[in-house]
Amino acid sequence: MTQEKDTKTSSKEPEVVEVEPKDLTPVKEKAQQGADEVTEAIDEALKENEDRKSDLDDLMDEVDAVMDETLEGTTADRFVAEYVQRGGE
After folding, report:
1. For residue 64, is pLDDT > 70?
2. Residue 42: enclosing H or E segment and its boundaries?
3. How many CA atoms lie within 13 A of 46 on its CB side?
4. What's the rounded mean pLDDT across residues 46-50?
5. Which residues does 70 contact at the CB level (< 8 Å), separation at least 6?
6. What is the C-alpha separation between 32 and 25, in angstroms, rounded?
7. CA-CA to 76 of 20 to 30 Å: which in 4, 26, 55, 68?
8. Is residue 81 pLDDT above 50, yes or no?
């Protein structure tokens, strides 16, 4: 008798449940908005980085010009020795 019961339950087909598809449009729109915000933030950061790089390049050019004027007619060793004597480290 137990064998008959087992065969009946094992031959039963699984029940199919129909599910309505969920509208993912709001989720997709929110994800796109987030992606747009991230892209905008990255673009701003890259622009700021480029501006800072340009400022640093200008500053380095000024330092080079001052060094060229200061070292004109002297050797680098002499410049360093004079700098240290004046209290520089």
Report:
1. yes
2. helix 25-71
3. 6
4. 95
5. 79
6. 10
7. 55
8. yes
